[in-house]
Each structure stands twice: as structure tokens, then as C-alpha cells.
Design goal:
Elements: E1 5-9, H1 18-25, E2 31-33, H2 48-60, E3 66-69, H3 81-101, E4 105-108, H4 118-135, E5 141-145, H5 158-168, E6 173-178, H6 179-184, H7 192-205, E7 211-216, E8 218-219, E9 230-231, H8 239-248, E10 256-259, H9 277-289
Parallel strand pairs: 1-2, 1-10, 2-3, 3-4, 4-5, 5-6, 6-7, 7-10
Antiparallel strand pairs: 8-9
Helix pairs in contact: 3-4, 4-5, 8-9
The structure holds zinc ion (2 copies).
């Protein structure tokens, strides 16, 4: 059985290549980074030297897969043409950066219909996705992330992502399954039976062959809580037992899991700073035991 890969989101501040050493410092086997500041439209201009250095350090490192996470401002269900165009531009840029640095792909929060319903936006969103894949014609995968369901976020139901994939018909359009969002959206992944039912629903609504990558986060919110609140592994409503059930399921063999957790405060009173060695080790321990 192909081994599950345990990775983490890391900062790329100070140059995109800095992400490699940050990933190695917490013994991550894969990393995820932002292509530019996630709360800003301004795109970072990654110089050719920075990209070459990233590729060089990556090749020498113990890091395998690299993923980008698109900026948070993009919304393909935006209700103004300006917002939609900026969103498309940001995603095309992220896919272009992904290809330049040799990343596997880009994880995307597809957007929010703000209560208008999926039917009201499905044409706009699927046309935008088709255009994005044409304008960034490389190899990078575009992985739509499932959502916790807050504020009309697209992807609360697996069927919403399945509907988009069905319309766009590109092998590059795939899915990122976030474990925290999954539980918050009402899919019980805290038990082996719940994991089996969730996998079966994913397979019928989307197809397991479209599962590109996972975000491994515990949840501060209970089952069906509809809020996106990440928690450290084993400390939330998914719990160690839920992650054991997931990592033991054949659907996830060989998959890349990326942590996006708050982290633990240091012994010396240092405050928590995102995915850390403790969370990486907790997932590795679960992986190696199942
Ligand atoms: Zn996520
Ligand atoms: Zn989240």
C-alpha cells in the first residue's frame, strides 16, 4: 500500500524558496504555500532567480509534492464583472507560478454564491473555470476545495463540486478534501463507519479518481457546525480516532495530506505559529500505526 505523505502549509515570506527550509524544519514530506499575500490582490513577481533557487533547493530536499493555495479574495461566483475578472486573473497567475516552480497544482476556494444557490451561479463558475484552464495551459492541477458551508460557500455538498467537474470536462480539474470542512459540512468522519459513508458519497458525487490532495485539519466545530475553524490534530471533533479511520481507508493510500492547523505554543511561551513538528508527528504516528 503506497505510503500516505504528510505535509504542511508553510510561509514563503522572504522569497518563495524559503518555504523549502521551513518545510524541512518541521519534517514535512510535502508543502503548500501561497503564491502571494492571501488577503491582497497584488501579485508577487517571483524573479527567475527565486524560482531557480526554489527548484534547486527542492531537488536537494526531503520535500516531495508542492502545492499552492490560491489567495482568499477570489470568488468565481462574484456578482460584479470586475471581481470575477480579478478572480480569474489571480487563479491563472497561481497556476502559472505552480508550473514555474514544479508544483503539482493549486488548491482553490471556488467562491460563494452568498445564498443565491448553486443553480444561480453554476454557468458563470463553470465558464470561468474553463477559461482559467485555457489561459494557464500547463500541467498544474486545479483542485477545488470542499467547504464548511459558511456564507453560501460552494463545495459544502460534494455534489456541487461534482457538478462543476462534470461541466468543465478537464482532467486537470480535481478536488482537495479538507477534513475540517468535511466534518463541519455534516459528513461524519470521526468514526470508521462515517468515513466509509463519506468516501462512498464522494465517489458517487465526484469520483475518487478526482481526489488530488487533502487538507488534514481537526475541527473546533462539531459535526454539521458549518463553520470553518481548524484545530490541531487530535484536539478537535474529528479526533485521533477519526484520523485513524481516514488513514486506514484504502481511498487515501498514497495521498498527500497537508496540515493547515493553528499549531501548539512553544515550551518557552512562544506563541503557536501554524503547522508544526508536533502536528506532523501526530499524523505520522497515526499513519505508521494503521
Ligand atoms: Zn483547507
Ligand atoms: Zn478551512
Amino acid at each position: 500500500m503506497a505510503k500516505i505523505v504528510i505535509g504542511a502549509h508553510v510561509s514563503s515570506s522572504g522569497g518563495i524558496f524559503k518555504a523549502i527550509e521551513r518545510g524541512e524544519a518541521i519534517e514535512a514530506e510535502a508543502i503548500q504555500i501561497f503564491p502571494s499575500a492571501p488577503q491582497m490582490w497584488r501579485q508577487t513577481n517571483h524573479k527567475p532567480e527565486a524560482i531557480a533557487k526554489f527548484r534547486e533547493l527542492h531537488a536537494e530536499s526531503t520535500i516531495g509534492s508542492v502545492w499552492l493555495h490560491n489567495i482568499y479574495l477570489a470568488n468565481l461566483a462574484a456578482d460584479t464583472p470586475e471581481h470575477l475578472e480579478k478572480s480569474i486573473g489571480a487563479i491563472v497567475n497561481a497556476l502559472t507560478v505552480a508550473d514555474a516552480i514544479g508544483a503539482d497544482g493549486v488548491v482553490l476556494h471556488t467562491g460563494s454564491h452568498k445564498g443565491a444557490g448553486m443553480d444561480a451561479v453554476v454557468d458563470q463558475v463553470s465558464e470561468a473555470l474553463t477559461r482559467i484552464l485555457e489561459e494557464a495551459p500547463g500541467n498544474a492541477i486545479l483542485a477545488l476545495e470542499n467547504a464548511a458551508g459558511q456564507g453560501g460557500a460552494i463545495g459544502k455538498e460534494f455534489s456541487e463540486l461534482g457538478m462543476l467537474i462534470e461541466r468543465v470536462k478537464s482532467p486537470r480539474l480535481q478536488v482537495c478534501l479538507d477534513t475540517c470542512h468535511t466534518l463541519a459540512a455534516g459528513y461524519d468522519i470521526s468514526t470508521p463507519e462515517g468515513v466509509a459513508a463519506t468516501v462512498a458519497e464522494f465517489d458517487s458525487a465526484i469520483g475518487l479518481d478526482r481526489l488530488a490532495v487533502l487538507h488534514a485539519n481537526d475541527s473546533k466545530m462539531e459535526l454539521g457546525g458549518l463553520r470553518d475553524r481548524h484545530e490541531n490534530i487530535g484536539e478537535g471533533f474529528i479526533g485521533t480516532a477519526g484520523f485513524e479511520a481516514m488513514l486506514a481507508h484504502p481511498a487515501f493510500k498514497g495521498k498527500v495530506l497537508l496540515l493547515e492547523v493553528p499549531g501548539f505554543p512553544g515550551d518557552d511561551g512562544e506563541k503557536a505559529d501554524g503547522p508544526d513538528l508536533e502536528n506532523v508527528n501526530r499524523l505520522k504516528k497515526i499513519r505508521d500505526a494503521v
